[in-house]
What we know:
There is one protein chain. The chain has 205 residues and is of the alpha/beta class. It has 7 helices and 6 strands. A 6-stranded mixed beta sheet has the order 3-2-4-1-5-6. The radius of gyration is 17 Å and the shape is globular. The two termini are 33 Å apart.
Amino acid sequence: MDLFLVRHGVTDWNKEKRYLGHTDRGVLMSELTQLKKLQKELAELSFDHVFTSDLRRCLETLAYLNVPAQVSVDTRIREINFGDWEGKTYNELKDNQIYRDWLNNWENLSIPNGESADTFKARIDTFIQDLLQHPFESTPNEKKLFLIMTHGGVIRYIVSKFVPSIAFWELSVPHGHGIHLTLVKHKGEWACNSLSVVPFQEKEK
């Protein structure tokens, strides 16, 4: 199974470095032209299915990319809910002790009126479990190709799940870019045997 995990295009809050989780901001249309290389690369692939977050920034990015495949909208691959910190910047929060503690221990501390790491991970885990199980019931030996249009935090978590050597905060995925994972099933367990960036980065001469 090949998974193309793509991060949505740039929004106004992204440009202003504001926390953006469940708040539904659209992409900046003026920034979409930066996705032409990604658009071209994805057009050369034949996806079995596309899954996308229900938030506007993902739906608008996907519409621009114009991938010819059936699309399913899934709330489970939303970004983490930043609660009281939605729309705020690091500078606005840096003197907040709860925020500072969360930065140092995000997996064990919840965001005020937001989402805990356990809740965030659990909903993505159910999405991944469904993805890994159902497509292979009728075609057990056929390779599948999926595009997942989602958010930075979701991509970080999925990659860290399948590639334990990459910690959650180690991975940085720019807007309009993504990660290509190739998964293989061995003795009933799925594992990653290949990871590359999307779109493909040509080496500088």
